[in-house]
Design brief:
Layout lengths: L1 H24 L5 H29 L4 H13 L3 H11 L4 H18 L5 H22 L2
Helix pairs in contact: 1-2, 2-4, 3-4, 3-6, 4-5, 4-6, 5-6
């Protein structure tokens, strides 16, 4: 699976290079469409990079220092779900981990349904961030 993801990532990066060249040579009427396509391809590139990191974490799920590094990297980018998934590969039955994943899912659901204010969302997200960092420290030391 990781070989496929690496191959696809290279294809996406090559497509990005071509899009940048085409946008540079485009007329004013088509620059916007190239910019939109570049945005979509970058999103795909980021998704593939995240999947590769998750695959890496699964392959190295016995090395706590590597799991910790990957999870902290996700947290630093605000990607709490990915950090929790990384921890889950190594510690699938930990109640605190499962509870925090549920809290994050509920928070994101409330955000999608627009039933939470921005202030409450920020506070709850900060609490979840603290909980994720505490889980990393507890399980990966």
């Amino acid at each position: 699976m990781s070989e496929f993801l690496k191959k696809r990532l290279l294809e996406v990066q090559e497509e990005l290079q071509q899009l940048f060249i085409m946008r540079a040579n485009a007329g004013i009427e088509t620059v916007g469409s190239y910019t939109n396509r570049i945005t979509l391809v970058r999103q795909e590139e980021n998704r593939l990079k995240l999947e590769l990191k998750a695959q890496e974490a699964k392959q190295n799920s016995t090395d706590p220092t590597q799991i910790k590094a990957i999870a902290i990297d996700f947290v630093s980018k605000g990607q709490f779900k990915e950090a929790l998934e990384t921890l889950k590969t190594a510690f699938p039955t930990e109640n605190d981990l499962i509870h925090t994943m549920g809290q994050l899912a509920a928070l994101e659901r409330a955000r999608r349904m627009n039933t939470i204010s921005n202030e409450n969302y920020a506070v709850r997200q900060a609490n979840i961030s603290d909980a994720v960092l505490a889980l990393i420290e507890n399980y990966c030391t």
